[in-house]
Structures are given as C-alpha cells and as structure tokens.
Amino acid sequence: MRHDSPKEPNPAGQAGPPILLRELAARLDAQHEDERARLARDIHEQLGSLLVATKLEIDWLTDRLAERSELQVKARQIGQRLDAAVEQVGRITTELRPSILDHQGLWAALEWRAEETLESRRLRGDVKLHVCHGVELPTGTVGERWSTAVFRIFQQLIAEIVHQKGVTTLRVRLYVDGPPQPVLHLEVGGDAAADADGDDVADTLVAARERAHRFGGTLKRVGSAGASLLLTMPLPDASDSAMPVEGAR
Hints:
The protein is of the alpha+beta class and 249 residues long. It is 51% helix and 14% strand. It has helices at 17-63, 69-96, 99-103, 106-121, 140-162, 206-214, and strands at 124-131, 169-176, 183-190, 218-222, 228-234. The longest helix is centred in the first third of the chain and has 47 residues, at 17-63. It is elongated. The two termini are 42 Å apart. The relative contact order is 0.12.
C-alpha cells in the first residue's frame, strides 16, 4: 500500500504558485499603470489642446459680436461649457496619472492628494509629513513602481477613511526613517469608528495590502478602535533592479 508523503511548503524565496501569482499580479499592475500614464498623456496633449484652442477661438468670436447681443450671449455660454470640459479633462488625466507625481515627486503628491481631499470633502485636516535628512526617493524603474504603489495605496486608505460614517476629520502622518535603510510609515485616520475589528483591514483594502506586500510592506489597523490605517514600506535599495515580490526579496 503506497503512502504519499505530505507536501512540504515552499521555502522562502523559492518560486512556487503563490510567488508566481504575485509576480503576475505585479506585472499586470505595472502594465496597468503604464497604460494609465499613456492615456493621461494622450488625453492631455490631444483632447486638452483641442479644447483650449477651441476656447480661444470662441473668445475671439465673442469679442466681435458686441453688436449682436443674442449671439454674444450664446457664444459666452459655449465658452463656459468649454471651460467646464477643460476642467473635466484635467480631472480625468489627474485621476489616471497625477502629473505632480512625475514632476515633483511622491512627497509632494501625497500632500497634494490629502489637501485636495480635505477641500473636496470639506473635512477638517491634520496633515504632517517628515522625511529624515539624507533620504532620497528611489529612482529607476523599481523606484517609480514603488512611488506609484505608495501613492495608489494612499488613495485607497483615504477613500476608506472618508467613507466611514460620521467622519469629519482626516489625519495623515508620514514619517520616513533615516539612512542607511529608510522605512516609510504612513498613517491615515479619522474621527469615526472603524468598520473592521482588531488589526484586520477591510475587504476593500485587500488590493492595497497586496501592493504593500510586493515591496516587503505591511498594512494594518492601529489606534483606538482601529480608527487609523498604517502602511509600513521599506524604500528599495538603489541596487534593486527587479520588481520586488513578497517572498522573493
């Protein structure tokens, strides 16, 4: 009679189905972000430019209709609609890929996102960011992926907090340890009770937790009644050249 021996778990660092699935998910995420960036560029450069040029022509036409008040009013209405369209295009491109992330870096992008949320949701704000002296944002492909992951997770954490019933305050704390092995600590909370118990994150944050895991990070609830969400992620080394995947670092 044959007895099958129990299967051994994959040793840490050895490729296996869970690792391969995470690698695939990481690559799909990267492709998704590249596509978002391309769409944002195309919309801004093509549709945005066309709308702005049309608006300038409408303004020119409006100025020359002074003696035809009826037509001038109509032209102004068209101009107002074009202004709204330009604003909408800006909002869409920002959601696809905020230009501040590429032009000013992650720290500025995180602060902008927090301030934008406070303004749009009319919440009280408590935002503090501190990056230790000597810490530089990671560069290269891995650095870009890491910054994008942090920003996307931050978006999800903010959405989770501001959608809690009764929230009136958004609190953000960013602290980055000093060299040689800096770690990012990003806490987002509010003044409303959390929907989940203990340190478990909600099902809506599973994707955010997986993003963090790919870069050796963690995501959990902290504080009184789990009212805050804490992301901890080490900054990738300058020598890193491959996409980090949990268990493969």
